């Protein structure tokens, strides 16, 4: 996190543009620009500003947004109530679709189910999620009007309304991830099927179906969990595009708006939050390994 914070700060500082000039306009007087830069702390040395920001992060004070005029902590907390359920819905949908489809394809290679999974994987990987979102809007929001085309009414409008606003974005975000997971699940199940313990179970009279779900699938979950953990960064980056397509006031939209407005303090805190999420998910994935593979529990 410390290394990531330094890299994030230096990269954002290297970006062109002056936040004070963007806020006041190109016609602002030099003394007015200098006063605003002093107010925002932009006139201080580079490493002093970095140390001040890092100290605030460690104490929970992320500073104040240049553009919105509110605390960045409050701003991120508000937007996170949209991005968190969106990401969770997309993850659950991707797992729910990919695991049965991958197992079905691996159980009968070369059959119709395997062909269906292959086509789904190729299309899902090739098509960008923002274009999938546009197609979903045209089909299910404009044509049949089952779901709203965009926006988020807020939790105060009711759970049903909030959930309905996230259905299409979560599908657009989940399809590419489900395509990758389907391919990984298929390969992992086929690999475990050829192991000696599976053949021994079949030789002892266990049916093909029971051997698949009792022995093969549980032992094939480890690479699937690994890939699911690695997909979290892609879900986060995909949320930036999908939230803008559906006009969702989430973290991704906040990052895009802050970057276009040169609201540096918001951008660097949002990116650092993304880094923290990835690190936490990777740590959780490592902890889950021991639950799935008993051979790892005794290792130090």
Q: How does the major sheet shape up?
A: none
- Structural category is mainly alpha
Radius of gyration: 24 Å
The tally of helices reads: 13
Helix content: over 70%
pLDDT < 50 stretches = none
Say what the CATH topology of the largest domain is: MetI-like fold
CATH superfamily of the largest domain: MetI-like
Q: SSE order in H/E notation?
A: HHHHHHHHHHHHH
CATH architecture of the largest domain: Orthogonal Bundle
**Average predicted local confidence, pLDDT:** 80
Annotation, overall tally of beta strands: 0
What amount of the residues lies in strands?
under 5%
Give the overall form.
elongated
The tally of domains stands at 2
Please give a structural write-up.
The model has no long low-confidence stretch (mean pLDDT about 80). The protein has about 300 residues and is mainly α. The chain folds into two domains: about 60 residues, no CATH class; about 220 residues, MetI-like (MetI-like fold). About 75% of the residues lie in helices and about 0% in strands.
Please sum up the structure shown:
This protein is mainly α. The protein contains 13 helices and no strands.
């Amino acid at each position: 996190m410390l290394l990531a914070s330094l890299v994030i700060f230096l990269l954002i500082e290297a970006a062109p543009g002056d936040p004070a000039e963007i806020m006041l306009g190109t016609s602002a007087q030099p003394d007015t620009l200098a006063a605003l830069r002093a107010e925002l702390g932009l006139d201080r040395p580079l490493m002093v500003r970095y140390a001040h920001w890092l100290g605030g992060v460690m104490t929970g004070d992320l500073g104040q947004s240049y553009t919105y005029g509110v605390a960045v902590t409050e701003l991120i907390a508000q937007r996170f109530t949209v991005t968190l359920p969106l990401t969770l819905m997309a993850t659950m949908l991707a797992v729910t679709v990919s695991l049965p489809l991958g197992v079905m394809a691996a159980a009968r290679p070369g059959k119709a189910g395997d062909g269906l999974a292959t086509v789904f994987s190729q299309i899902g990987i090739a098509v960008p999620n923002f274009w999938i979102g546009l197609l979903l809007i045209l089909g299910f929001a404009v044509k049949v009007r089952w779901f709203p085309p965009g926006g988020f009414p807020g939790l105060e409008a009711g759970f049903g309304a909030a959930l309905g606003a996230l259905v299409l974005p979560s599908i657009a975000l989940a399809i590419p991830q489900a395509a990758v997971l389907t391919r990984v699940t298929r390969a992992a199940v086929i690999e475990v099927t050829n192991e000696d313990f599976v053949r021994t179970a079949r030789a002892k009279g266990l049916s093909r179906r029971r051997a698949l779900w009792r022995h093969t699938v549980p032992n094939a979950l480890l690479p699937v969990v690994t890939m699911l953990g690695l997909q979290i960064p892609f879900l986060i980056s995909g949320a930036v595009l999908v939230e803008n397509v559906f006009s969702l006031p989430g973290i991704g939209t906040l990052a895009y708006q802050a970057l276009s407005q040169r609201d540096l303090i918001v951008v660097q805190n949002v990116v650092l939050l993304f880094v923290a999420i990835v690190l936490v998910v990777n740590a959780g994935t490592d902890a889950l390994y021991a639950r799935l593979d008993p051979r790892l529990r005794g290792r130090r």
